[in-house]
Amino acid sequence: MKKLKVEDLDRIKEEFIEGSKLQKGERTVEILVHMGTCGIAAGAEEVFDSLKEEIENSGRNDIEIVMTGCAGMCSSEPNVTIRRLGEEAVIYRDLDREKIKEVFRKHVLEGEIATQYVLAKIR
């Protein structure tokens, strides 16, 4: 297998961004629930189920929830990444059913970052 160069990674990133429903305007919010083995063991399934309920109750159809693998930050699981159109992505850490409801309300519905649960921001 050929070794990847930085340029290859940049190209892959751009292709991913261009193909994203968020960038195509079909969605304004994308929520990634990191559900690798570590996330599931820490309670990511409950977080995912709670998010599905919150999205349904919000009545909005511009929010997409996606299961993803581990983000590599196992000690802070369950992790959720929220990407709002035109904004930096935010990774939230150590979530549970109640915390994700607060994060959803504050970040997704009100547009404010729930700073007490932030692990990182991504451009």
Task: Note down, in words, how this protein is organized.
The protein is an alpha+beta fold and 123 residues long. It has a single domain (6-122), classed as Glutaredoxin. Helix content is 42%, strand content 21%. It has 5 helices and 5 strands. The protein has helices at 6-19, 21-24, 37-42, 44-58, 97-109; strands spanning 29-34, 63-68, 80-84, 89-92, 118-122. The chain has a 5-stranded mixed β-sheet with strand order 2-1-3-4-5, with helices on one face. Helix 4 (44-58) packs across helix 5 (97-109). The model has no long low-confidence stretch (mean pLDDT 89).
SSE topology sketch:
Layout: H1 6-19, H2 21-24, E1 29-34, H3 37-42, H4 44-58, E2 63-68, E3 80-84, E4 89-92, H5 97-109, E5 118-122
Parallel strand pairs: 1-2
Antiparallel strand pairs: 1-3, 3-4, 4-5
List keywords for this structure.
123 residues, Glutaredoxin, 5 helices, 21% strand
